[in-house]
Amino acid sequence: MKTIKICMGSSCFARENRDNLAKIEEYLALYGLTDSVQIAGSLCMGKCADGPNIMVGDTLYSKVLPDQINEILDKELQPK
Description:
Elements: E1 2-7, H1 10-30, E2 37-42, E3 54-56, E4 59-61, H2 69-77
Parallel strand pairs: 1-2
Antiparallel strand pairs: 1-3, 3-4
């Protein structure tokens, strides 16, 4: 099962990770992936200056804006 960690530290949360979470949930529902992908919150990923941060599997994405979520998840979750 793939895991998506979303930084919910105050800096990332204030910089759109709340909106990123909604986009991720929407994407997973649209593609029927809610049972095969786990979403987890993280208090801080230690990259506050580069936030908002999300981690998909072992890959950290920084400065993620909501309009980039679909592209990231397509790359990480869709069959190659």
